[in-house]
C-alpha cells in the first residue's frame, strides 16, 4: 500500500489530532478482500486448466512427430512411402510450431487480463477503504490520518513513532465490516428414524 495521508481542517480553533491507520491490515481484514481474491483464484484455475489441456495436446503432437521421424527413413519402405513420411513430418512440425505459438499467446494474453483484473479489484477496495477513512476523519475532526505501513521514497517508514491510542485501524475495519453478509450454514442431514413396525417380528 502506498503512503497515504488525509488532511482536514478540524475547526477554526485547530482542535483536531493526528491519527494513524494500518492500511495493510485494513485491506486484509475487509470482508470483501477474500471474496474478490477467491473470484480471482477461480479465474486463475480456469485459465490453468485450459493451459494444461493445450500443453497436453502439444505433447501428444510432439510424440506423434517423433514417431514419424523414426519411420521416414526406414529402408523397408519404398521411396514413395518414405517421401510421404517426410511430408507428414514437415506438416507435423508446422502443426506443433503453431500449437507452441498458440500456448505462448494464450499465456501472455491471460497474464495481462489477470493483471488488469487484480489491479481493478485492488483499486475498487482501496477506494472504498479510503472513502470510509475520509468520512471518519471528517466526523471525528481528525487533522491528519497517516498510513503507518507506508514508506517514504527513501524506503524508510513514513511514521517513525505513534502512540497506540492514536491508531484507528480497528475502528475502520469495524465500520467496513458492519454490513458483512451473514454466512448461511448448510442444512443438517435429516436423521432417519428406525421403522418400529418393520423391526417387529
Describe the structure.
It is a single chain. It is built from 5 helices and 3 strands, in the order ββαααβαα. The N and C termini lie far apart (74 Å). The N terminus is likely disordered. The relative contact order is 0.21. The protein is mainly alpha-helical and 201 residues long. Strands 1-3-2 form a 3-stranded mixed beta sheet, covered by helices on one side.
Task: Please outline what is shown here.
With about 200 residues, the protein is mainly alpha-helical.
Any descriptors?
201 residues, 5% strand, 60% helix
Question: Low-confidence parts lasting 5 or more residues at pLDDT below 50?
Answer: 1-15
Q: Calculate the mean pLDDT score and round it.
A: 83
Number of contiguous helices: 5
Major beta sheet, strand line-up:
1-3-2
β content, as a range? 5-15%
Q: What structural class is derived from the secondary structure elements?
A: mainly alpha
How many distinct folded domains? 1
- In helices, the fraction of residues equals 55-70%
**Largest β-sheet summary:** 3 strands, mixed
Q: Would you count the extended β strands for me?
A: 3
How far apart lie the N and C ends?
74 Å
N-to-C order of helices and strands: EEHHHEHH
- How does the overall form come out from the CA principal axes? rod-shaped
Rg to the nearest angstrom? 31 Å
